[in-house]
């Protein structure tokens, strides 16, 4: 697969995230993210796009030490290793990775985002509860704060997960498919909440698949298939040729000829 030229987006901004030759994979030894070079400027909203199985989720998990990392020194958050910057980073997993049968309310799930700050076994104080309710309000879920998560729709559950990430007030949000299988109002509510955080100085890197939403909602895009193929402002990165190469369509067409 040809490598697409990679511009340096927002070169004047300091980096929230930097990877230089980063590798991550599975315990079997299979590497799904290889030689990743990437610089995400602060205050940007960036989409990580690519075909299924390209290693996008592995990349996010690898950066956070949730999958085996072969080059841990090759990733920096705000210029520091993960252990030094962990409180500045929030992570949203795919909805399918959550046990939705657990007897918790929507508010309980959001409060889980504050455990690292207030302590796992400490009593939830009034200020923390108010902060969690504010996060739910940002995604239009405050009125359902007391509803059991098992009774929520898929889109409502996704909003709750985003609220859990937002309540941490992290400077960098790593989100794995925050818009997956949601309706248009939910997509708009989530996108608007993330944009507000970026306007406040936070940085968002989100796995996403809908190119229309990427063009409408994101500043930058990263085309990814095992490694970074292109990275830059959306209008410069999302074009037919680049997408065809990232998804392997060019190689398939050439092979067929």
What do you see in this structure?
With 257 residues, this protein is an alpha/beta fold. It is globular, with a radius of gyration of 18 Å. The strands form two sheets. Strands 5-6-7-3-8-9 form a six-stranded mixed sheet, with helices on both faces. Strands 2-1-4 form a three-stranded antiparallel sheet, covered by helices on one side. Helix 5 packs across helix 6. The chain contains eleven helices and nine strands.
Widest beta sheet: strand line-up: 5-6-7-3-8-9
Low-confidence stretches: 1-7, 250-257
Number of helices: 11
Q: Please state the average pLDDT score.
A: 86
What general outline do the C-alpha atoms trace?
globular
Question: What's the short story on this structure?
Answer:
This protein is an alpha/beta fold and 257 residues long. The chain has helices at residues 56-63, 82-85, 106-111, 115-118, 126-138, 154-166, 184-199, 211-217, 234-237, 240-246, 249-256; strands at residues 15-25, 31-41, 45-49, 75-77, 89-92, 172-176, 203-207, 220-225, 227-233.
Task: From the structure above, extract its key features.
single chain, 257 residues, alpha/beta, six-stranded mixed β-sheet, three-stranded antiparallel β-sheet, 9 strands, 22% strand, disordered C terminus
